[in-house]
Amino acid sequence: MLIFICNFASHFGFVLIMSEIRDIERRICRLESIEGIRQLQAKYQRCLDTRDFDGIAECFAEDVCSSYDNGKMSYEGRDAVMMFLCNVMRLNMPSTHLIHGGEVDIIDEIHAHAKWFLEDYLLHQRYKMKLHGAAIYEVDYVKIEDKWLIKSIGYKRCYEYLEWRPLMNLMTLGKRTFFDRLKNTAPETLGKYGKYFQYEILKKKKI
After folding, report:
1. Cβ-based neighbour number of residue 148 at 10 Å
2. Is 36 within 8 Å of 28 (Cβ atoms)?
3. How far is Cα 37 from Cα 148, in angstroms, rounded to an integer?
4. What fold characterizes domain 2-202?
5. What are the pLDDT digits (tens) for 128-138?
6. What is the pLDDT at residue 26?
7. Residue 23, exposed/middle/buried by CB under 10 A (0-12, 13-18, 19+)?
8. Whose CA is closest to 148, among 13, 35, 65?
């Protein structure tokens, strides 16, 4: 009887330990997923403001869909979303897109959803305009081949503030820096969307 009790206690203890180990593994996997998603979103924001269009494309799943500005700018598929961004993110409109917080919900092993608080600034030299706004990003993610990608992305505005300013105040080093880098980049080092921006947008002076 004593041997049975000892064996039962030993088995129960082993099962309990294994259960705790599996729980720890799940929690670590969740934290790794959240960090992977955080870095992915940070890369998207950085590439957006530095006009690294090939870098942006690396963040998207092939069937990504967008719903920017309360759904007014909606596109389906990586090519469609990238063509839109290449045409609207001009070099004469220096921008800053800052995200804060990050409420990341890991739905399962390959799906996640997050809300990010966005604060953005845009200087439009042609219209002598400064935009400052805030919005809530809603982003869906999918894990493909052990890599998190953006499945859908969009935002809804909290507010948008426009201010018309003298042109002199809108001149920035950023435009020259990005323009020189993109203009002088060897074509063979660019990806599909970098080439499109360099040779279709810059060549036609749609900067």
Report:
1. 22
2. no
3. 6
4. Nuclear Transport Factor 2; Chain: A, (3.10.450)
5. 788 899 999 99
6. 84
7. exposed
8. 35
